[in-house]
Amino acid sequence: MAAAASPYDSRSEVLRGVEWWESQGYKVKLADGVWERDDYVAGSAQQRGEDLNALFADPEVDVVQALQGGFGSAQAIPFLDLDLIAANPKPVVGFSDITALHIALRQKAGLATIYANGLIGVGSHETTTFSKSRLLDVLRSGVEARCRRTRTTPGYARSAAAV
Fold this sequence. Notes:
Largest sheet: 3 strands, parallel
Number of helices: 7
Strand order of the largest sheet: 1-2-3
């Protein structure tokens, strides 16, 4: 889990998210910079990018989940090692400001991503049981981290002439 955008408001929010995943039978690995703060973002853009790179490089990590949305994920994009990420595809989970990462990872590394609650969201009592269950269902279904080429994929060439 990486804090790619805004920081946590209270440490207990993070711990509730960790507790929820553990109650589902999973281990949670928090990135080195998860507790960092730099005004309204979760540490420097470089630290946030390096944390994401480390999670993709780590063979023990199966899914990369954002702490939460908020602001600042686009600042981390220049610090992503997109070759490393493409070579180690993993589902990426997050929403709101994390959309910037979804787009960059899709366009630059060909990854499929999941628009869903971050760690704080899955630990929140305000998040519906349906949302939490659906996230688990999608992740447990063996979702592929790589995107298949379709008509909307950049560089896709149609084999049939349009009528």
